[in-house]
Amino acid sequence: MRKRLIVPAVVAALSLTGFVPASAATVATAHQGGTVAAAQSGTVATAAAAKCKALKSLSTLNIRKKATTKSTILGTWPKKAKGCDISGTLGGTYKNTCGIAKYNGWRKVNYRGTVGYVPNVCVVYV
């Protein structure tokens, strides 16, 4: 009985911290004959967590739809919270952000299921 509860609990905890997208949590909840069944695609939630490069925000950030300060805000990322790095990109210039006068590098991130862009100078790897 305990084995059945461990995997969903771990995936749920990782999902809440932003390390696994919320949709991946459903993979671990499908049980078949007392064992966890893999999704039809053949991947399991632990594979998604292994690909995550953990980031921590240096200040409260707006997560934007595109790599520009004029883009739609999809959500916020609180200071010192952890999320996942997806990729880096150059984009619109931002000024006076996280103590940097002017810069144009952005990170595509996943914070608790919200995927978007934040200023590169405002996050660090953990």
UniProtKB/TrEMBL annotation:
<keyword id="KW-0732">Signal</keyword>
<protein>
    <recommendedName>
        <fullName>SH3b domain-containing protein</fullName>
    </recommendedName>
</protein>
<feature type="signal peptide">
    <location>
        <begin position="1"/>
        <end position="24"/>
    </location>
</feature>
